[in-house]
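Researcher: We are triaging several targets before committing to wet-lab work. For this one, the compound of interest is flavin mononucleotide. I'm pasting the protein sequence and the ligand SMILES. What I need is the predicted three-dimensional arrangement of the protein with the ligand bound, expressed as C-alpha coordinates, so it can go straight into our comparison scripts without reformatting.
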Amino acid sequence: METLDAIRKRCSLKNHLSDRPVEPEKLRAVLQAACLAPSARNLQPWRFVVVQGKEAVQSLVDAAIFGPSTVIRQAPVIIVVCARPGDDVTIDGKEYYLFDVGLAVENLLLAATDLGLVTHPIASFNEAALKRLLHIPAEFRVVIVTPLAYPLEGSYDEAAAERLRQRTRRDLKEVAYFNRWEEREPA
Ligand SMILES: Cc1cc2nc3c(=O)[nH]c(=O)nc-3n(C[C@H](O)[C@H](O)[C@H](O)COP(=O)(O)O)c2cc1C
Protein backbone atom coordinates (compact mmCIF):
# COMPACT_ATOMS: atom_id res chain seq x y z
CA MET A 1 0.00 0.00 0.00
CA GLU A 2 1.27 3.45 -0.77
CA THR A 3 1.56 5.94 2.08
CA LEU A 4 -1.25 8.12 0.76
CA ASP A 5 -3.47 5.07 0.45
CA ALA A 6 -2.85 4.15 4.07
CA ILE A 7 -3.56 7.74 5.12
CA ARG A 8 -6.87 7.69 3.24
CA LYS A 9 -7.92 4.24 4.43
CA ARG A 10 -7.00 4.51 8.11
CA CYS A 11 -10.02 4.92 10.29
CA SER A 12 -10.95 4.34 13.90
CA LEU A 13 -13.27 1.36 14.20
CA LYS A 14 -13.24 0.02 17.73
CA ASN A 15 -16.56 -1.78 17.21
CA HIS A 16 -15.23 -4.07 14.49
CA LEU A 17 -12.25 -5.84 16.04
CA SER A 18 -11.60 -9.55 15.60
CA ASP A 19 -10.06 -11.56 18.43
CA ARG A 20 -7.75 -13.29 15.92
CA PRO A 21 -4.19 -13.10 17.26
CA VAL A 22 -1.82 -10.56 15.70
CA GLU A 23 1.47 -12.13 14.63
CA PRO A 24 4.51 -10.99 16.68
CA GLU A 25 6.24 -9.79 13.49
CA LYS A 26 3.32 -7.49 12.68
CA LEU A 27 3.24 -6.15 16.21
CA ARG A 28 6.97 -5.51 16.01
CA ALA A 29 6.61 -3.81 12.63
CA VAL A 30 4.05 -1.32 13.89
CA LEU A 31 6.13 -0.54 16.98
CA GLN A 32 9.20 -0.07 14.83
CA ALA A 33 7.28 2.27 12.53
CA ALA A 34 6.28 4.29 15.60
CA CYS A 35 9.91 4.52 16.69
CA LEU A 36 10.98 5.85 13.29
CA ALA A 37 9.03 9.05 13.89
CA PRO A 38 10.98 12.27 14.14
CA SER A 39 11.18 13.95 17.53
CA ALA A 40 12.57 17.20 18.88
CA ARG A 41 16.31 16.77 19.48
CA ASN A 42 15.71 13.10 18.72
CA LEU A 43 14.70 12.57 22.33
CA GLN A 44 12.10 9.92 21.43
CA PRO A 45 9.95 10.51 24.51
CA TRP A 46 7.53 7.66 23.72
CA ARG A 47 7.20 4.36 25.56
CA PHE A 48 4.78 1.57 24.64
CA VAL A 49 3.30 -0.99 27.00
CA VAL A 50 1.93 -3.86 24.93
CA VAL A 51 -0.82 -5.83 26.63
CA GLN A 52 -1.70 -9.15 25.01
CA GLY A 53 -3.77 -12.20 25.80
CA LYS A 54 -7.48 -12.38 26.41
CA GLU A 55 -7.36 -12.26 30.19
CA ALA A 56 -4.79 -9.49 30.47
CA VAL A 57 -6.58 -7.36 27.88
CA GLN A 58 -10.01 -7.86 29.36
CA SER A 59 -9.05 -7.16 32.93
CA LEU A 60 -7.17 -4.03 31.88
CA VAL A 61 -10.08 -2.74 29.82
CA ASP A 62 -12.62 -3.51 32.52
CA ALA A 63 -10.55 -1.69 35.13
CA ALA A 64 -9.37 1.33 33.19
CA ILE A 65 -11.29 2.10 30.01
CA PHE A 66 -14.47 4.17 30.08
CA GLY A 67 -17.91 3.78 28.54
CA PRO A 68 -18.43 2.63 24.95
CA SER A 69 -14.67 2.22 24.50
CA THR A 70 -14.79 -0.96 26.58
CA VAL A 71 -15.60 -2.77 23.31
CA ILE A 72 -11.84 -2.86 22.75
CA ARG A 73 -11.78 -5.76 25.25
CA GLN A 74 -12.28 -7.89 22.12
CA ALA A 75 -8.81 -7.00 20.79
CA PRO A 76 -5.89 -9.42 21.09
CA VAL A 77 -3.50 -6.51 21.69
CA ILE A 78 -3.79 -3.16 23.43
CA ILE A 79 -0.97 -0.68 23.11
CA VAL A 80 -0.68 1.85 25.92
CA VAL A 81 1.39 4.84 24.83
CA CYS A 82 3.26 6.73 27.53
CA ALA A 83 5.69 9.61 27.71
CA ARG A 84 7.71 11.41 30.35
CA PRO A 85 7.07 15.16 30.27
CA GLY A 86 10.64 15.83 31.43
CA ASP A 87 12.00 14.11 28.29
CA ASP A 88 11.16 16.96 26.04
CA VAL A 89 12.17 20.10 24.36
CA THR A 90 10.38 23.25 25.47
CA ILE A 91 10.50 26.10 22.99
CA ASP A 92 8.76 29.37 23.83
CA GLY A 93 6.80 27.62 26.55
CA LYS A 94 5.58 24.86 24.21
CA GLU A 95 6.34 21.36 25.45
CA TYR A 96 6.97 19.18 22.44
CA TYR A 97 6.66 15.75 23.99
CA LEU A 98 2.98 15.36 23.12
CA PHE A 99 3.72 16.46 19.58
CA ASP A 100 6.49 13.87 19.30
CA VAL A 101 4.28 11.13 20.70
CA GLY A 102 1.54 12.11 18.24
CA LEU A 103 3.94 11.65 15.35
CA ALA A 104 4.93 8.21 16.63
CA VAL A 105 1.31 7.19 17.12
CA GLU A 106 0.34 8.29 13.61
CA ASN A 107 3.19 6.17 12.24
CA LEU A 108 1.87 3.27 14.28
CA LEU A 109 -1.69 3.73 13.02
CA LEU A 110 -0.60 3.98 9.40
CA ALA A 111 1.70 0.97 9.62
CA ALA A 112 -1.15 -1.02 11.15
CA THR A 113 -3.44 0.01 8.29
CA ASP A 114 -0.78 -0.99 5.79
CA LEU A 115 -0.60 -4.44 7.42
CA GLY A 116 -4.37 -4.90 7.31
CA LEU A 117 -4.88 -4.21 11.02
CA VAL A 118 -7.41 -2.00 12.76
CA THR A 119 -6.68 0.61 15.42
CA HIS A 120 -8.64 3.24 17.34
CA PRO A 121 -6.90 5.87 19.46
CA ILE A 122 -8.69 6.28 22.79
CA ALA A 123 -8.11 8.90 25.47
CA SER A 124 -11.08 8.07 27.70
CA PHE A 125 -9.32 6.02 30.32
CA ASN A 126 -8.50 6.05 34.00
CA GLU A 127 -4.85 6.98 33.93
CA ALA A 128 -4.19 6.12 37.57
CA ALA A 129 -5.66 2.64 37.08
CA LEU A 130 -3.58 2.03 33.94
CA LYS A 131 -0.43 3.18 35.71
CA ARG A 132 -1.11 1.00 38.72
CA LEU A 133 -1.98 -2.12 36.74
CA LEU A 134 0.93 -1.78 34.30
CA HIS A 135 3.50 -0.58 36.85
CA ILE A 136 4.10 2.60 34.87
CA PRO A 137 6.45 4.89 36.84
CA ALA A 138 4.88 7.97 38.44
CA GLU A 139 6.82 10.44 36.28
CA PHE A 140 5.28 9.07 33.06
CA ARG A 141 1.91 10.10 31.62
CA VAL A 142 -0.35 7.81 29.66
CA VAL A 143 -1.09 9.67 26.45
CA ILE A 144 -3.27 7.34 24.41
CA VAL A 145 -4.38 3.73 24.17
CA THR A 146 -5.16 1.83 21.00
CA PRO A 147 -6.31 -1.68 20.25
CA LEU A 148 -4.44 -3.52 17.51
CA ALA A 149 -6.54 -6.18 15.85
CA TYR A 150 -7.58 -7.82 12.64
CA PRO A 151 -10.84 -6.50 11.24
CA LEU A 152 -13.95 -8.36 12.27
CA GLU A 153 -14.97 -10.56 9.36
CA GLY A 154 -18.41 -9.92 8.00
CA SER A 155 -18.83 -6.44 9.46
CA TYR A 156 -15.61 -4.48 9.07
CA ASP A 157 -15.61 -3.81 5.34
CA GLU A 158 -19.05 -2.27 5.28
CA ALA A 159 -18.43 -0.30 8.47
CA ALA A 160 -15.13 1.06 7.13
CA ALA A 161 -16.68 2.02 3.80
CA GLU A 162 -19.47 3.82 5.64
CA ARG A 163 -17.06 5.56 8.02
CA LEU A 164 -14.95 6.77 5.12
CA ARG A 165 -18.07 7.96 3.29
CA GLN A 166 -19.25 9.85 6.38
CA ARG A 167 -15.82 11.20 7.20
CA THR A 168 -15.89 14.90 7.92
CA ARG A 169 -12.82 17.07 7.70
CA ARG A 170 -12.51 20.82 7.54
CA ASP A 171 -12.19 22.03 4.01
CA LEU A 172 -8.67 22.89 2.94
CA LYS A 173 -9.86 26.45 2.34
CA GLU A 174 -10.65 26.73 6.04
CA VAL A 175 -7.27 25.55 7.28
CA ALA A 176 -4.64 26.29 4.65
CA TYR A 177 -3.66 29.82 3.83
CA PHE A 178 -1.28 31.05 1.19
CA ASN A 179 1.27 33.79 1.68
CA ARG A 180 -0.60 35.29 4.63
CA TRP A 181 -3.20 34.37 7.25
CA GLU A 182 -6.64 33.72 5.75
CA GLU A 183 -5.45 34.37 2.22
CA ARG A 184 -6.94 31.67 0.03
CA GLU A 185 -5.24 29.79 -2.75
CA PRO A 186 -5.43 31.78 -5.97
CA ALA A 187 -8.26 30.43 -8.17
C1 LIG B 1 -6.03 12.13 20.82
C2 LIG B 1 -7.25 11.33 20.43
C3 LIG B 1 -8.12 10.90 21.40
C4 LIG B 1 -9.22 10.12 21.05
N1 LIG B 1 -10.03 9.63 22.04
C5 LIG B 1 -11.08 8.86 21.71
C6 LIG B 1 -11.90 8.30 22.73
O1 LIG B 1 -11.66 8.48 23.91
N2 LIG B 1 -12.95 7.54 22.34
C7 LIG B 1 -13.22 7.30 21.02
O2 LIG B 1 -14.18 6.61 20.72
N3 LIG B 1 -12.45 7.81 20.04
C8 LIG B 1 -11.40 8.56 20.34
N4 LIG B 1 -10.59 9.08 19.35
C9 LIG B 1 -10.88 8.80 17.94
C10 LIG B 1 -11.42 10.03 17.22
O3 LIG B 1 -12.74 10.27 17.61
C11 LIG B 1 -11.30 9.79 15.70
O4 LIG B 1 -9.92 9.69 15.37
C12 LIG B 1 -11.93 10.93 14.90
O5 LIG B 1 -13.32 10.94 15.07
C13 LIG B 1 -11.66 10.81 13.41
O6 LIG B 1 -12.10 9.57 12.93
P1 LIG B 1 -11.12 8.59 12.15
O7 LIG B 1 -9.99 8.24 13.11
O8 LIG B 1 -11.95 7.38 11.81
O9 LIG B 1 -10.61 9.30 10.96
C14 LIG B 1 -9.48 9.82 19.69
C15 LIG B 1 -8.57 10.26 18.71
C16 LIG B 1 -7.46 10.98 19.07
C17 LIG B 1 -6.50 11.42 17.98
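Researcher: Any quick observations?
Model: Residues 11-12, 69, 121-124, 144, 163, 167 surround flavin mononucleotide (CB under 6 Å).
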